[in-house]
Design goal:
There is one protein chain. By secondary structure, this protein is of the alpha+beta class. The protein has a single domain, classed as L,D-transpeptidase catalytic domain-like. The protein contains 4 helices and 12 strands, in the order E-H-H-E-E-E-E-E-E-H-E-E-E-E-H-E. The protein has helices at about 25-35, 50-60, 150-155, 215-220; strands at about 10, 85-90, 100, 105-115, 115-120, 125, 135-140, 175-185, 185-195, 205, 210-215, 230. A hairpin with a 4-residue loop joins strand 3 and strand 4. Belongs to the YkuD family. Pfam families: YkuD. It comes from Methylorubrum podarium.
């Protein structure tokens, strides 16, 4: 799959890859084996000091106690500041509302129109599991049940205990919100999901899915209707 649209972010910061840590039987190891607006919360505008930026990020990534499963604050010291949510200049011919995934630079954009976009830091597919092309949001889920694919169970037999599904919750790999990606009426098995692992942002750990911090994923999910176009750029 490919695409012919040119996109360029005016203040692109280049790519970075966090070090890989030893795999363990945990929410993150399951993720590694399986196929998450403008305004005050956008971290937009001028940042006068590192302290100001960190204080604003602490508000954006604070706890969410009203959720069905209360979400703790993100340890922002474990996230490179360039991956904090913010509003950026972004040139594209895609319509407002379109989601653009840039796996090379570990970013997800929501096109806002007027040459701007909301940018989120992301984790993406690891080597051998990257893909590109156009898709769309075929359905949306809150605190979804996660069922490991048969291919994953073969690679990681310890996941077999969830063959009938893991109920939603903080330890569930899909997290608080999930956008399920479709092509031509068929589910691709790829998702944009909510991650509670701040150290994963800016790295390739999944089998093609794209993860945002839970607070970012909830922010994106609320603005994304079913049928929204998703463009995944080549890595």
């Amino acid at each position: 799959m490919g695409w012919g649209q040119e996109n360029r972010e005016a203040d692109a910061g280049g790519s970075a890859r966090l070090g890989h840590r030893a795999q363990r039987l945990s929410r993150r190891s399951f993720l590694a084996g399986s196929a998450a607006g403008l305004g005050a919360l956008g971290l937009g505008g001028c940042v006068t000091s590192d302290g100001t930026m960190l204080a604003e990020a602490a508000k954006v990534y604070g706890p969410m106690p009203a959720e069905k499963f209360p979400i703790p604050a993100v340890d922002i010291s474990k996230v490179d500041p360039k991956y904090y949510r913010r509003t950026v200049r972004y040139e594209t011919k895609e319509a407002p509302g379109t989601i653009i995934v840039d796996p090379r630079n570990y970013y997800v954009y929501r096109v806002e129109g007027d040459g701007s976009a909301t940018r989120y830091g992301a984790n993406v597919g690891r080597d051998g599991f990257l893909w590109s092309g156009d898709a769309y949001v075929g359905r949306k889920s809150e605190w979804a049940t996660w069922t490991p694919p048969k291919e994953m169970i073969r690679r990681q037999p310890e996941a077999a205990k969830y063959a009938r599904g893991m109920p939603g919750g903080l330890d569930n790999p899909l997290g608080a919100r999930t956008l399920h990606l479709y092509q031509n009426g068929a589910y691709t098995l790829y998702t944009i999901y909510a991650s509670s692992d701040p150290e994963s942002i800016g790295s390739g750990i999944t089998s093609g899915c794209v993860g945002l911090l839970s607070q970012d994923m909830i922010h994106l999910y609320a603005q994304t209707p079913v049928k929204t176009k998703v463009v995944v750029l080549p890595a």
